[in-house]
Amino acid sequence: MASPGTPVTVTVTYSNEKHIVQITSHQEDSEPTLQDMALLIEQVTGVPVPFQKLICKGKSLKEMEQPLSALGVKNGCKVMLIGKRNSPEEEAELKKLKDFEKSVEQIANKLEEINKEFTGIQKGFLAKDLQAEALNHLDKRIKGTAEQFMKILEQIDAILDNVFLERRRKLTKNLPENFSDCKLKKKGLVKKVQAFLAQCDTVEGSIGQEMDKLQSKNLALAE
Question: Contact, 20 vs 3, CB < 8 A?
Fold first, then answer.
């Protein structure tokens, strides 16, 4: 068994290529795992982790969370990789998706801030005479946040479309490649954005209800 924090060096063979890789754990004072090795192999070979088949000593390695030592992978071992690396076109589309993912996280942070401020108003952390203006401002912000999510969803939806159209235009015989990794990431990101949009709808509805309650109270007091 390797000591915690000690790197493991193996030789990875892929097609006619040979790569000597030194695997370290992403967690301090822990042994490197199969996941650590797979991520490093992706960087070295360009074969995405979901499409890697790793074989060591005739055994297929599958348990990603297991330490390499538990799987019999030690210093000096040879690991054979089977899998298909992404085309340059797919890599370009994957980069776009990663950029969109960062943008989604930034918008999600805005949604979280709105939610926190609204919860504070609900709990009475803001003076009553300031609540109407604050709720009105939050209503505008949540609508703007939802619009940002919708815009980015449209942009994500367009990923791959231009590539496919261009390749069909140039070579009708050569249809687009599978782009499996890109499709998988795109699908996951679309689901994430849709979930955030659902949260926006919920928060917007709650803000509207709170505004209605406040308006009803003010009308009752005015009578």
Answer: no
Mean pLDDT over 164-192 rounds to 70
pLDDT band at 38 (very low <50, low <70, confident <90, very high): very high
DSSP letter string over the chain? -PPTT--EEEEEEETTEEEEEEE--SSTT---BHHHHHHHHHHHH---GGG-EEEETTEEE--TTSBGGGGT--TT-EEEEE--PPPHHHHHHHHHHHHHHHHHHHHHHHHHHHHHHHHHHHTT-S-HHHHHHHHHHHHHHHHHHHHHHHHHHHHHHTTTHHHHHHHHHH-SSSPPP--HHHHHHHHHHHHHHHHHHHHHHHHHHHHHHHHHHHHHHHHHHH-
* Sheet order of strands, 78-82 included: 17-23, 8-14, 78-82, 53-56, 59-61
Burial class (CB in 10 A: 0-12, 13-18, 19+), 107: buried
Rounded-to-integer distance, Cα 126 and Cα 139, Å: 16
Tell me how far apart the alpha carbons of residues 6 and 28 are, in angstroms, rounded to a whole number. 10
Structure tokens at 74: 């030690």
Measured in whole angstroms, how far is the alpha carbon of residue 212 from the centre of its chain?
A: 37
Q: Hey, how many other C-beta atoms are within 10 angstroms of the C-beta on 23?
A: 23
Q: pLDDT, tens digit, for every residue of 133-176?
A: 999 999 999 999 999 999 999 999 888 776 666 656 555 444 44
pTM of the entire predicted model = 0.64
